[in-house]
Amino acid sequence: MTAELVRGQNHPLTEARPEVRVTAARPVAVGVVLTDEQGRLAGVEGVLLPGGPAGPPGVGLPGRAAGGEHRVTVEPAALPETVHRVGIVLALPAGARFGGGPAPFTAVVADGSSGPPLVSYTITGLDSECAVVALELYRRQGAWKVRAVGQGYAAGLAALLTDHGLPSAEAQRLAAVAAVAVVAEQNGDRPLPPPSAAGTPAAGTPSAAGASAAAGASSAAGTSAAGASSAAGTLSSGAPASAAGTSPSGTPASAAGTPAAGTPAFGTAASGTAASGAPAAAGPPAVGTPAGATAQSHGGPAVPAPTASAGVTAPGAPEGSAARGTSGGAPGGATAPEGAHAAPGGAHTTGGAAPMAASGAPGLPPLDAPGAPGAPSAPSGGTSGAPPGGASGRTEPSGTHTAPGSVPATAGASRIDYRHPRRERASSAQGHDQAQDRTRTRGEDGAEQPPAPVAGDAAGWSMEERLYNQVWGMFEDLARAVAAYRGAVEFADNRRDQEIDAVLGDYRARADGTVDRARREAKARREELVGRAQQVLDQQLAQLRAESEVVEPALPPAYARWESPVWRSYRAPEEQPLALRLGDLSLPESGALRIPLLLRLPLERGLWIDSGAGGGAGGLLATPEERRRLALDMAVALATRLLAAHPPGAFTVHVIDAAGAGARALTPLARAGVLAEPPSVGPAAVSGLLTRLAGHVDLVQMAVRAGAAESLPPGTDLSQRLLIVHDFPHAFDDRAVTALRYLADEGPRAGVHLLMVADREDAAGFGALLDPLWRSLLRLTPVPEDHLADPWVSHAWTYQPSLPPGNGATLEGVLARVAAARRG
Amino acid sequence: MTVNMTKGQAISLQKDDGGSLTAVRMGLGWQSAPRRGLFGRRVREIDLDASALLFAGEQLVDVVFFRHLVSDDGSVRHTGDNLVGGAGTGGDDEAILVDLQRVPVHVDKIVFTVNSFTGQTFEEVANAFCRLVDETNGRELARYTLAGGGAYTAQIMAKVHRSGPGWTMTAIGAPSNGRTFQDLLPDISRQL
């Protein structure tokens, strides 16, 4: 009867000599951590890893069973008294993660039993982790139990060990040992090619096989550096020490074999997707800087390009898998990408070479190898970039079975750093990266500095679009910031009122001074909260102001204020603008900050400048006459802006000034000659213009609907048109009103836009007939008024019209240049 | 490092470099009900809903859920209701984004809940999980596995609350029952 555990569940363990079996679909290092009651490691002797020293009595790693399972034998009674917990640890090579494949399966069986397991646990729910504490056997009141832990570590085995109280350096050294073991296991997984003929003594022992592989590799490669060959031996033998033994050179490169040198071969990704596979990365744990690591990989110039004589170039390491190899716990894993990139060029078959990487029979315990004869002395290649102990030779084991005899001895000889300079590296180099981040994002005072604003800091195809999106982003930011502030203040007010009410309801409290005190307290609490809200708001406003200061000067004419210098140096554009600035928006809380109100072009609906007495406070300040004058000035400014924002000839303006009352204000437009025709005065001219425009809309619509825009009669002007209607409804009969409504509804799709300058009260005689017209238009006011709502939180925004400064010189200057551009 | 949180475990939402988090996402994913052939047994879709409840002290001030996708101040956003679930391969099917810097000052707790709108208990839902992600770099801060849970239809996942200048997340993982967050309010108030 098997007890299937879920995470966190435990189960009694009565077996005297239980055996833990781990089944994983890919190479994995299975180790043990022996910890005290608090789950702390006393030292390195509490860590058992394949390829490492044997642990205390009572626990052993006999290697893999016939079925491919990893085994861990435990004899609880024989364990030292200080050991209270036995954690079964699984570690993947760097770059691999548990999330990508089938969940590892663990089981506890009676010693030697082939029956069903006592307890089983499938480690599910893992994702980016590459090391995990799978099971834990622990003492509980004299008896032993087993618990499903499943605690994963994305940063790898080193992080796991550190978490158990091991010093970081020790943890990384051990992680490197495990990494080597995984590679050995990976080799062991493959069919073994025939042993080397290169005079290998005592090929029967795994370590000797490893040695011979190294010897064979280097002798065959001839020129290949000892760094490569010794590392090859390291990887294939599964015993770091043996590699050291094989290389008699005594150069630093040979020291790669020792764990301390940090042969963190975790980079040898279990890719298996390419014949050549990924190279292992090496680097001393102490070197955290990518640059340093790169130098390391250069240190092993074991890329014998000339040895390609055999002809077959291995397809190279899959770049992705190797590049991801940095995520492992192995220090120096950052070198993997270089190695990977080097592989396509550097992985060569050396014909007739003794097959290497062929040793490492599954699960054989590491042995110290005697120094193998025949290993060439190392050229100093390994030393060039490598500090003592930093070897970087690497080999590719997985290629051996597909291309027997190949020695893809690829050191990371590529001098090109393909890593993205800014990309996040979820690697062991994290600590280093974070240190960099800290220096970058923290100011001298230790507070986080918001990044300096930049104009155009938004998405978009063109600068114009980016600016447009940025302005809308600022608009939203301000809306949200103020919403948060208002929410907080409202909450604070409500809470104060409730607290005061609660006290007032208590009659006894009225007698003494409790009420006053409570009232003071409630008010103080309110002030405190509002103060905090204000502080946050001020901070956000300051940031937006800074952004606004950068953005405003960068705006093109169509977006810019009239005061902006771009208007002084105005030149006719070649393309239609994306949007048009209608004015500024602000909120009471926003202080001096103004957000440009940008309206997308072409206009989807008409505009209505309300010359009547609106509801806003500003409406009371201006007299009706003033408002009317301002309204028409604003219409002229808008028309000028539209004309100026379009390429010459792409925009025409018609004016209806039925009573002729606006002649003076319209003079600049008329004088510059930018109007399509003189303003229409009087009923006949009005209805004539409306009829012509309606006919134009009809024609264009018909043509567009029929998909025959090119069959329009010659001479049809397809430019965008703006119709300014002043003094509505003077001189408008029912037919003209109907035509106007038709234009308002259908015009925008045919490029005819309406700009009404009117007081709704004047048209009261038409009753409800005109309500749809007013509603279909975007209402603007000649004086600041809070009638516009934002699409996010529906604040009432104060609209401030944009009027050219001073005596109209700016306006006339622009109009003159528009007219000049039109003439040619 | 991903933390597989256990009940009541608190983690401080600080970046590893000491800076405080600015944006977190609560992701919810589950596997849709298996589909059968045209005339096979009809299966009911599984609709899990993620909600975020904003509290000022003990008082609920705002809720972000599938009928109110953006909090009034815009700091908390729901990416939209998913009615049937996904492939169950680990992707988020629903997500709630919290811009911690924008959260109004009076809001000091945000409680995340998961409800089964269609009424299936978590026993019946495959591959359901809930996780908290640092939205700025995509790093997973905490993860809960819902699947294989008990016979209940809702879970109060976690609360993110102010502590000092930053925020702290406490895993709650308390089971509850209900179709939407309203049904959970009594249970939630116990967890505040």
Automatic annotation (TrEMBL), chain A:
UniProt biased composition (Low complexity): 197-210, 228-295, 333-362, 369-381
TerD domain ranges (all copies): 65-164
Positions of the UniProt region annotated as Disordered: 188-210, 228-458
Biased amino acid composition, Basic and acidic residues: 434-445
One Pfam family it belongs to: TerD
Family matches, as InterPro entries: P-loop_NTPase, Stress/Tellurium_Resist, TerD
Domain of life: Bacteria
Compositional bias segments (type: Gly residues): 382-392
Protein family according to the UniProt entry: Belongs to the CAPAB/TerDEXZ family.
Protein's name in the database: TerD family protein
Annotated source species: Streptomyces fragilis
From TrEMBL, chain B:
Domain TerD, chain residue ranges per copy: 1-179
Superkingdom in the source lineage: Bacteria
Protein name: TerD family protein
Chain coiled-coil ranges: none
Classification via InterPro entries: Stress/Tellurium_Resist, TerD
Organism: Streptomyces fragilis
